[in-house]
Amino acid sequence: MKNPQSNSESKKFVGAQAAKLIQYGMVVGMGTGSTIAFAIEEMARRMREESITFVAVPTSFQSRILCMKLGIPVRDMQDTASLDLAIDGADEVDPDLNLIKGGGASQTREKVVAAMAKEFVVVVDESKLVGRLGETFAVPVEVLPPALAYVERKIRDLGGNPALRTGSGKDGPVVTDNGQFILDVRFAPAADLRTIDQSLHNIPGVTETGLFFDMARKVLVGAGSPGNLTLKTLVRAG
Fold first, then answer.
1. Model-level pTM greater than 0.85?
2. Angle between helices 4-19 and 34-50 (to 10 degrees)
3. CB 3.0–4.6 Å: which of 31, 65, 222, 235 could bond 10 by disulfide?
């Protein structure tokens, strides 16, 4: 198991590698999370030192604030119909490059940005690679607050065990950038998450899930130990 230092070094390494994908004049979707924060910092360095220009479309207030702090021009999602590239992290990546996202409670906006992009690239350290989705991380489900009790009941009917995500540094539940709640849902190891995902989307009150099927074409993985880090590139067939 990685220690926190090696984990951080892997995230910084792979984030810097992702920043190399930025080309002059691109409109780039920027995800959320610690690995993406490293990527944004490297993009800002390239902008200063290499005179590269691009526009970022952030998926969260966190990423937007960091981009603005570092001088990266930003554009709102609602003013954007397509993207040249989207870069984001993931909480889990399975062998077919399907994902669980939403640890930062931004999966709804992240999925929109991923769908907008001509190319969607995921950046992770190797601890995020799993044999099956749901192995280490619950499935985040974004829910309209008035529908909370109803959605919880319907999720239990699907065999899930939902838990309302609570905040850190505040009392009560996490509130997303969309003003909604997050249910973290555990399913049995043998559950067919692709079918369950379709059922979740049919529940009134569910905005979006953190299951990303068939969206990522490429995953950049930071592997190894500090001082001996390497980049693995995983590409989905088809």
1. yes
2. 40
3. 222
